[in-house]
Design a protein that fits this description.
Elements lengths: L1 E4 L8 E4 L2 E9 L2 E6 L4 E2 L14 H24 L1 E2 L1 E4 L10 E4 L2 E2 L2 H6 L11 E6 L7 E5 L5 E5 L6 E2 L1 E5 L4 E4 L10 H15 L7 H16 L13
Antiparallel strand pairs: 1-15, 2-3, 3-4, 4-14, 5-13, 6-14, 7-8, 9-14, 10-11, 11-12
Helix pairs in contact: 3-4
């Protein structure tokens, strides 16, 4: 596992932080906007049916119990890297022009649209925090399992909470990508094969075509392009 600063991670790549897997979306509000790779859990947007994020039960949970768990798992440095974010709560129809300040939040419908090219559909529906309209007290935009935006009533508990964070751009994170120097290049693989031939020689009766085929197969195994199971069974 590789450690690097989050600002150096490519957009759309996943990383590990505070016991969860996240997707980097990009620079935002002085930090780096990220979203959990999957939903955290199924829950109502608000148990009392309000479409207003500011009074919602999901906001209370995410910025209370869940936020405390994140900080505990991330440690002092990681916990301090979770920045306060100013969230635009403008409704989908342009009404309700207010904001909220949170450590943990849900993506707005606008943020989802902007990042839809790197956010693959999930098996579960999930909430955005954008209400349908100021005139609608209970309708909230959500994302269907095929990736399309729709809406649902806030008290429905069949949609998922998918937390988003604003992280300090200098935060050190862990990623699954190996270092470039750890990857076996064709040049290095070729040197390995030449050393093997020089050491063990070429068995009697082996044709140049058979040798080329064997070298190609072994190079593929060394580079991880083929598996041992891909090899054809010997002819009787």
């Amino acid at each position: 596992m590789k450690t690097m600063k989050i600002k150096d991670l490519a957009r759309g790549k996943t990383f590990h932080f505070a016991g969860q897997e996240w997707i980097k979306l990009g620079p935002d509000d002085g930090g780096i906007l990220v979203v959990m790779a999957d939903i955290l859990k199924l829950a109502a947007f608000d148990e009392d049916g309000s479409a207003d994020w500011r009074v919602s039960s999901s906001r209370k949970y995410l910025n209370g119990e869940f936020y405390e768990e994140l900080k505990a798992k991330a440690g002092p440095a990681g916990g301090n890297a979770i920045m306060e974010a100013t969230i635009n709560l403008t409704a989908d129809d342009g009404t309700n022009r207010v904001t909220s300040t949170d450590h943990v939040f849900l993506l707005t419908a606008t943020q989802y649209r902007h990042n839809r090219d790197i956010l693959e559909p999930l098996s579960e529906w999930w909430w955005t925090l954008t209400r349908w309209s100021a005139s609608s007290s209970c309708s909230v935009r959500n994302v269907y399992s095929d990736g399309t935006l729709s809406y649902n009533v806030a008290y429905d508990g069949l949609d998922g909470l998918r937390p988003a964070l604003l992280l300090d751009s200098d935060l050190l994170i862990s990623v699954n990508e190996p270092d470039a120097e750890d990857k076996l290049t064709p040049e290095v693989a070729g040197e390995v094969m030449r050393d093997m031939v020089n050491t063990f020689g070429i068995p009697a009766g082996v044709t140049s075509e058979q040798l080329a085929a064997g070298v190609s197969f072994l190079l593929g195994m060394l580079r991880g392009d083929v598996e041992l199971a891909d090899r054809e069974a010997p002819h009787e």
